[in-house]
From TrEMBL:
GO terms for molecular function: metalloendopeptidase activity. It comes from Longilinea arvoryzae. This is Membrane proteins related to metalloendopeptidases. Keywords: Signal. InterPro entries: Cell_wall_metabolism_enzyme, Dup_hybrid_motif, M23ase_b-sheet_dom.
Amino acid sequence: MKNLSGLLIVLVLGLAACQPVASTPEPTENTVAAPEETTSVVITTEMPAETTDVITMTEEATAVVTPTLEVCSPLQGFDQADLLARISNPFDPPAPGSDNPHQGVDLSDFDPADPNRIAVPGRTVQVALPGTVALVQTDRFPYGTAVIVETPLETLPADLQAQFGDLAVWPPRSPNDPLTCPTVTPAPQYDASRRSVYILYAHLSSMADLQVGEEVNCGQTLGTVGQSGNALAPHLHFEVRVGPAGARLGSLAHYDVSASEPEMAAYCDWRVSGDFIWVDPLIVLNLVK
C-alpha cells in the first residue's frame, strides 16, 4: 500500500509540473491606444508655433505693399513749398450744390522783376499725381483749355484714403440755385463701387498731345500756363474732387451760348451734383492737413 500511495503522489506531482504556466497576455488594441494618443497630443502642442509663424509672415507681406505715392508740384521749377507764395486766388468752397465762389486754387507765375506781381504766361504745367487722363478739352468756357487726371483712391497713402473716403454726402441741390442745368440727360456711367481723386488743370494756353485713357506720370508735362476760358490773367486753376471711378465727362462748358446740353450736363455733374465732391487742393499738395 505504501508503495502504491507513493506512486500516486509522484504521478500527481508530474502532471502538475506538465501544466502550462500562465503567460503575460498579448497587448490588445485598447492597450496600445493610449501611447498613440499621447504621441498625438504631443504633436498637437507644436501646432500653435507653426500657426504663429504663418500669421507673422502675412503681416510682414501686408506691410510691404502699403501704398506710397509721389506728389509733384504742378508748376515746373517751383517746389511744393514755393506754391504758397504763388497763390493768386485761394480755395473758397461754396455751400454744397452751389457753383460759387471758387472751387479750386489759382497758381500764378509772377514776374520777379515787377514789384506789382504781374502774372505771366508760359510756365510749364505738370502732373501732380500720377493717373489716367479722364478729360481733354480745348478752349471751352469757363475752364478753357483743360485736362483732368484720375488717380484711384486706393493708391493714395493711408491717411488720405481715410480722409477722402469718409467725405460727407452732399444734400440735394436747392431749387433756387441760379445755375441752369439740363433737366433730361443720359445717366452717367461710373464705377460706383470704387472711388478716385480727380485733378483738373485749367486755363492752359497750350496742351501736350494727350488722349483720354492715357497713363501719365508725376512731373509729366500737361501744357503751359495761360488764360483761356474765364481768366482775367494767366494762371493755373488747380481743382481737386473725389468721385466714382472711371468717369469720362467728355467736355465741360457753361455760361456761354455755344455750350451744348451734354457739355452743360457734364459741367453740372462735375460742379454741383455731389457725385464729385470738392476737397482742398492744398491737402493733396501736402501743404495743409
